[in-house]
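Weekly structure sync, notes
Attendees: PL (lead), two postdocs, one rotation student
Agenda item 3: pending single-chain targets
PL asked that the sequence for the first pending target be pasted directly into the notes so everyone works from the same version. It is reproduced below exactly as submitted, 270 residues in total.
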Amino acid sequence: MDGGQHGVDRDSEAAGAQPIIAAQRICKDFGSLSVLRGISLEAANHDVISIIGASGSGKSTFLRCLNLLEMPTSGSLRIGGEDLDLRPGPQGLVAGDRKQVRRIRAMLGMVFQGFNLWSHMNVLDNVMAGPVHVQGRSKAEARESAEHYLQRVGLYEKRDAYPAFMSGGQQQRAAIARALAMEPAAVLFDEPTSALDPELVGEVLKVIRGLAEEGRTMIVVTHEMAFARDVSSKVLFLHKGEVEEAGPPGELFRAPRSERLKAFLTRAAV
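Predicted structure, written out during the meeting:
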């Protein structure tokens, strides 16, 4: 099947003229606990940004703030050249335009730690659901797209299988196909291998590496240091809700400046 019609238009001058994602001074409090303390990030077309750090450093919370699964307490977001209408509320920011939120979420594919597949649907129907029910695409078009992306992640032969009869690695690859079928401008990965048995991690990382080679714009929260070092265009190291250090992976992994990052990399055996 011709895959040329799928995915983001990477030749668009407009797409390359400004960041696809621009987050400025994102803060997030849960009651008296400050989880994010002013994190900023820009992701341009083709960027692969890995976010690393110890458990509890705010990595997943920041990712969820980008597509408003969590509402920031303060800060600003610009997605696809569009400023999000975020207004002060009693406990932080609130969305001023729910239609805009739905539109922005459709632009940002999300792959979770848990696979979040619908157990009562087979794989093909799982991947088709978003394009049909959220984007209003015809079932014929959605099926073509779903089959294309299932081929892309190596699961076409499993299209009629149900999640309960698939390995964790297969379920996560199906979740990646589901995110891609929405034709997002960028894909957010929240520790996509953390729920997998060690022998299944490689098959999922191979798919993500392939997406990076295709030029997909991605932000990846990961504890896989070799992946972050080899695939990323930029790495952010978070510590207690702040960006402790950021830069190209070659610099960050070979010559970390922060003592906290040095200690983290030593514990990670990088």
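Discussion points:
- Confidence is low (pLDDT under 50) at residues 1-16.
- The first helix runs from residue 13 to 17.
Action: rotation student to compare against the earlier draft before next sync.
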